[in-house]
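Open question from group meeting: does this chain pack into something compact, or does most of it stay loose? Before anyone orders reagents, we agreed to write out a predicted structure and look at it together. Recording both the input and the output here so the notebook holds the full record.
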Amino acid sequence: MTEREIPERYLDGYAEILAEVSATGRRLTREEITSRRALGEQAAEAGHGLRALVSAHLNAARTAWPAFPGSAADALAAVQQVVDAFAEGYEDAQRHAVRQEEAARREFIDDLLYGRSDLGRLAERAERFGLRLSHAHAVAVAEGPVAYEEGDPVPRQVERALISRFGDRSILLTTKDGRLLCIAPGHQDEVLAHFAKQAYAATDGGRVAIGRPQPGPGGVVHSYEEALGVLELAERLELEDPVLRAADLLVYPVLTRDRQAMAELVLDTLGPLTTARGGVQPLLDTLAAYFDCGCVAAEAARRLSLSVRAFTYRLERIHQLTGANPGDPAHRYMLQTAVIGARLLDWPAKDL
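Structure tokens returned:
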């Protein structure tokens, strides 16, 4: 917007104030400052640019300058006071607008991720933030060593990296419960992959989970819940991969779908280990390490900082107590499934 387009009403009473102040040498009154602030707020709400508004004030002062009866110094001081008050009102209005926009955005994100709003109305609101909920979307969630809020350096760094790479591709970046979130169209996997790379680096080695693309207005919340489930699963199973995809881990939800059956398998298969000297945990760790490294005893012993002899003794003890031989393919699947179930159900820390 050019200077000539600034309405005269934002300069209402300005020339009169300058003339009186230059004649008397006084400062602006409280009422005059308040009126300038109010005009600044109105100009901001109307969408006028601050540079053009300041230029309009300076041009008006230059035009009226020959008619000022007093000193130039007093007139200049009055111009400064007027512009300061006007700019303060303008900035206050802008801050208020930003806060309102942030509140609306946060309310939308909460409704989107919790599925609390009418889906039709939610889809309408989503278009304001660049999302078309009629299409499939996927959600990536990143967590680091600390909690993050919008505006923190880490979210800003990740956002800049995505914008510089992809521009405006209907991507929504935000934070929720201290985690970073990226919501992207389901067919744009490269966006989520790049988000995962940038978030991993920005969080100094955090973990990223990517939900599967899900269709429709409720697809975002479903993909988000999947990603959260993957993060919880990774913690329970002590998965080391920095980027995990729900599509690659579908076997685990299947295993726990019948929780009672899994609990019975864990207790029937691994329950006898509770009678071992030193408790069940060292023997559970032995089995977990053995299966995680492909049933290679030497590698599993190294991971547990044990000698191979000590490790094989533990395997023999497990065989004696459970009747199942970890080295026997016929028994291995049952033991490995029970170990996974113990991790998922947090046994023996929690009673089954």
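Observations to bring back to the group:
Residues 50 and 87 are 7 Å apart (CA to CA).
The two ends are 69 Å apart (CA to CA).
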